[in-house]
User: What shape does this take?
Amino acid sequence: MNTTDTRSIASMTNDAGEYTMSSITGKLVLAAIREYDYAHAGEQEAIERVFASLPRHAEQRVLDIGCGIGGTAQYLCEQGWGQVVGVDIDANNIASARSRHPLPTFECCNAAYVDQHIAGPIDVIYSLNAYFLFADQRAALRALRRCARAGAQLAIFDYVDRGGYTDTERDRSALDLDVQAALLPTTGWQIDRVETLDAEYLRWYKELVAKIEHKRAQIVAMASEGFYDYVWSRYAETRDDARAGRLGGATIYATAEA
Assistant: This one.
């Protein structure tokens, strides 16, 4: 196992001893597969697509919720989108982000309490494939609204259950857009539009599985043969669910109400 910026074989697993991509090793392996510190679908293409309709100002304050090891926050700083703060609940992710990316600011906190750690007002808030994992989405949205100025822009780029995907026994989850349509207005956010990305998610996961297969030796060297098998099966399953129409993707755009 390559010990560069990794903790131990145990860091690849959860408390039940099961492999997990939310571990620091999982994030680093995924970054190696994607060839930059991204953990979200579509990598740079997705960032450009999500941000195409959002304001770009060097002095505005931007908040990345569920920043992982910081690649997206760094990219947005480099491209002049603003002063980016990344937050993540995992202290290992934040430690790695701080060591790897000098331009953003990073803080470790739960999204449901982000307003207790990040001073407002924030101009743009985004989450890329992280919001669907939040244990209390209502509390997170309320906390984000308390951080945001009136009129601030919110973009949630995430997985969408198109029918039959969510399975608590297999620990699979995705957004129900009807639930989100009811939830956001009760937490201080007005939904502006929803951009469907089902075809893009299928293409992105086809490409990702091909990259995983191409980088098998590197993944085994970084982690283990077992972890390679886990990564391949996890994302091949995601690709197959997208192909079958069970899983899709979307970006929800909303504005902070006055």
